[in-house]
């Protein structure tokens, strides 16, 4: 590339290389005016523009110019300092966004698993504050059913015949309901429901085992368990609450 294809900036001792078009995203900004030598704050030294400002914060400004989105680390706290830097460069759109600090901070995503065990059956209800997470989890979970005569049922493992997958109940976009275990239906038929949770390939019938696999899957997906409690509403229901941090849309 020729020297006219790229611009080199030295900001607070950190070196940045970019295209002129990136700095011209906002023509009214000082960075855009810098290219035409209209701002004496920026000194051209040995082919590099020298800027006596915070270089670490400037990396976030460069990211904004390249993507037109505000992407900050989950533990970022210097909103006011970064806003001052945006005002210095006269990037008014970025400064205004940073003024709404509460919109840029990562939000907690909550997932609640309710588990009810009744004799040989286990019932699950999962509620999530983020509908896309619940949708993705619903695609991982499959319930299979198997029916045999009661007197021939002597194993907790699936029979050799193909199992029939059942759709999960979805009361809303934010929750799902399913169950596993065994139950007698009309005609002395023993109905067994197995649960499989991808990427695990096992088909589990024991509710406690399903609960353990479900929690392990969520922990592997970035959630952390923050509380467990027993809900009494006529029946003993165990409630597991998990959370993870997620960034708001850019």
UniProtKB/TrEMBL annotation:
One of its GO terms (cellular component) is endoplasmic reticulum. InterPro entries: BTB/POZ_dom (IPR000210), SKP1/BTB/POZ_sf (IPR011333), T1-type_BTB (IPR003131). SMART domains: BTB. It holds the Pfam family BTB_2. SUPFAM superfamilies: POZ domain (SSF54695). One of its GO terms (biological process) is protein homooligomerization. Keywords: Ion channel, Ion transport, Transport. The keyword Ion transport applies. Signal peptide: none annotated. Gene3D superfamilies: Potassium Channel Kv1.1, Chain A. Residues 5-106 form the BTB domain. This is Putative potassium channel regulatory protein.
